[in-house]
Specification:
Layout: H1 15-26, E1 31-41, E2 48-56, E3 59-64, E4 72-77, E5 82-85, E6 87-92, H2 101-109, E7 113-118, H3 121-127, H4 129-140, E8 145-150, H5 169-176, E9 181-187, H6 190-194, H7 198-210, E10 213-216, H8 223-231, E11 236-237, H9 243-252, E12 255-259, H10 263-276, E13 283-286, H11 292-298, H12 301-310, H13 315-322, H14 324-329, E14 346-349, E15 357-362, E16 365-369, E17 372-373, E18 407-414, E19 420-429, E20 432-433, E21 439-445, E22 456-461, E23 469-472, E24 481-485, H15 488-500, E25 504-509, E26 512-518, H16 530-547, H17 559-562, E27 571-574, E28 577-580, E29 585-587, E30 591-594
Parallel strand pairs: 1-4, 1-5, 6-7, 7-8, 8-9, 9-10, 11-12, 12-13, 18-22
Antiparallel strand pairs: 1-2, 2-3, 5-14, 14-15, 15-16, 16-17, 18-19, 18-30, 19-20, 21-22, 21-24, 23-24, 23-25, 25-26, 27-28, 28-29
Helix pairs in contact: 3-4, 5-7, 9-10, 11-16, 12-13
Length: about 600
């Protein structure tokens, strides 16, 4: 972890810089830049007032009445736009956009996001510490401020799945020693923390000893379990399931990272917050996961703000959550507020409904105008990320479950997202189990070279009737090769297309590939442009509509990427079998009994 970190936030305390800013504030020296003619949205009071802003280097020197100063090396006419602090995304994964950090940075900076908190646990699960080191170097090259976190759950459920690496407390402590790392990323192994598992206790304690953030993933926790999770030292959550869950976790004292990736819950969250009559200081905003087509078309955190306002949140509340509250959470007093002595991260928005960024300034530099980057964005060599899919070509037989007898009783995984155990009877034909009526198949093959790559097969119920197959190496969180389907021919075809591509996604139907998105970097991202990646991913979505009928909000395309998330409660298919974190049970085969 030897990357050269940014010099922030200490760079603002350079005596010469402070002296210049003081002189400029007094009027005894000119500003480097002056933003005039704008209306400032105060992130603390929520009030809007006309004000001009002068800064020296990266430091805001003065916020003063309009037209009272004109002495500046450069004057920017804000033309009545709304001035806010730069937006801060408190929890996200670059890898979910399926493009490189450089492409991601260009997309969100141009829309007003100047800081993100990146948990690179996707790269970590594939490449281990080398993946985190690469992420740190990639972030260091960028004009987007990226605060990286140490991935805490690699794999997310030890013993139930196998990733490309295994991070114990000593690895976490090593990462935390880097000034480029701001804390422990979402602690997903909830049961391990609650039950006092030594591995997870040591990981959380490493975070506490560092004095840095310990972030959480508290999906479904309440009562004694939530108390135990927080008592261990975890302080945040983004895995909200309802308005009541939001209120309970606010009341418990967690920092909330209100995420935009579950749109069906946002209106309910807004109603709860409006009912309080104020915005709690512990509410921040995050994107978590943004797919490439969504990022290209709608943006990142700016899109979350737009939707919250559309659902009835006051614009000043949304901005406060995305700026001042976020900066307080990150212990970054230089961020989140347009005020003298703070960092010159400033966005000029056209209005408070569409939040189109006319101008984006980061650390005193103009980085974007009207949605276009104004500075070069450096791309780090992605060579260390290639050749991550260590699997041979697969055959139809690899997607069949052998069994004796003529009929069997099998375990099934019922429902997307909120899974539960179920059972069914199935026939056996030619020595293989015939999928039970109304079920789909899921297969997971270890692809990191740490164990054999023989697919483990399970049956899904409540997932509709599949008329083809879908394969992906984007499969949270171990990112093993995962295949869904209604027949073995299409499953093998889709799997082999992805293996040949070095990772990615493929849709097969009636013996042919309908769509393919190669993701040869870690099996997660591509060096292609965001626009081209968005178009290819949109083709995957379109092809998926031909092979399964979606039923929102739970049976949706996105559910395919979390179907192997073994740290969540209930049964999940992994590369080891059907795993249940609640019991610690792993079924290598779903066959329970030969009848």
């Amino acid at each position: 972890m030897n990357a050269i970190p940014r010099q922030e936030p200490g760079d603002l305390n350079d005596p010469a810089l402070r002296a210049r800013a003081v002189a400029a504030a007094r009027g005894d020296a000119p500003f480097d830049m002056l933003i005039a003619g704008g209306r400032l949205l105060d992130a603390v009071t929520g009030l809007i007032r006309e004000a001009d802003i002068g800064f020296v280097g990266a430091l805001i020197a003065s916020v003063h009445p309009p037209a009272s100063r004109s002495d500046a090396a450069e004057i920017i006419d804000a033309a009545g736009g709304i001035l806010t602090p730069g937006l801060i995304d408190t929890h996200m994964h670059v890898e979910s956009s399926m493009v490189t950090p450089a492409a991601y940075a260009s997309a969100v900076l141009a829309r007003g996001v100047t800081t993100v908190v990146w948990d690179p646990h996707e790269f970590a699960n594939v490449h281990g510490l080398d993946g985190v080191r690469w992420a740190i170097e990639a972030a260091r090259c960028l004009p987007l401020r990226m605060i990286l976190l140490a991935p805490s759950c690699v794999p997310s459920a030890p013993g139930l799945e196998l990733a490309g690496a295994d991070f114990d407390a000593s690895v976490i402590a090593e990462m935390l020693r880097s000034s480029a790392v701001g804390g422990v990323a979402e602690v997903m192994n909830m049961r391990g923390v609650i039950d006092g598992d030594p591995r997870m206790v040591a990981i959380v304690n490493a975070g506490l000893a560092s004095g840095k953030l310990v972030c959480g993933h508290a999906r479904g926790l309440e009562g004694a379990d939530l108390n135990a999770f927080m008592a261990a030292g975890v302080t945040s959550d983004h895995e909200l399931t309802s308005g009541a869950d939001l209120l309970a976790k606010l009341s418990a004292g967690l920092t909330i990272e209100l995420r935009g990736s579950h749109d069906h819950l946002l209106q309910e969250f807004v109603e709860v917050l409006n009912g309080l009559g104020h915005l709690p200081a512990t509410v921040t905003l995050c994107t978590d996961d943004v797919f490439p087509d969504e990022l290209h078309q709608n943006g990142g955190l700016d899109d979350v703000i737009r939707r919250l306002v559309r659902y009835g949140m006051k614009p000043e509340w949304a901005i406060r959550a995305a700026t001042f509250n976020a900066a307080q959470r990150l212990k970054r007093p230089d961020l989140g507020l347009v005020a003298p002595g703070r960092r010159a991260d400033i966005v000029v928005f056209e209005d408070l409904m569409e939040f189109r960024a006319q101008l984006v300034i980061s650390s005193g530099r103009i980085v974007a105008r009207n949605g276009s980057m104004q500075i070069a964005v450096q791309q780090l060599d992605p060579a260390p990320l290639v050749n991550s899919v260590k699997l041979p070509q697969l055959g139809e037989r690899d997607f069949r479950i052998p069994s004796r007898g003529e009929r069997v009783r099998v375990a099934t995984i019922d429902r997307p997202r909120f899974t539960q155990w179920s059972e069914a009877e199935a026939e056996v034909s030619d020595g293989f189990v015939v999928p039970p009526a109304g079920s789909a198949m899921i297969a997971v093959a270890h692809r990191h070279g740490q164990a054999n790559g023989i697919p483990r097969i399970g049956f899904l119920t409540g997932w509709g009737e599949w008329r083809g197959a879908f394969c992906t190496t984007v499969s949270h969180d171990s990112h093993n090769l995962t295949v869904f389907g209604g027949n073995t021919r299409d499953m093998a075809l889709a799997a082999n297309a992805v293996i040949s591509a070095g990772g990615g996604m493929a849709v097969a139907k009636d013996g042919k590939i309908e769509a393919l998105l190669p993701l040869p970097l870690s099996g997660l991202v591509t060096s292609a442009t965001l626009k081209n990646t968005a178009l290819a991913f949109a083709d995957i979505r379109k092809a998926m509509e031909k092979i399964v009928d979606w039923k929102p909000p739970y049976l949706v395309f996105k559910a395919c990427f979390g179907a192997t998330l073994a740290c969540n409660l209930g049964p999940h298919q992994t590369d080891r079998g059907i795993a249940d974190v609640g019991t610690g049970e792993v079924l290598e085969s779903p066959v329970l009994e030969v009848l």
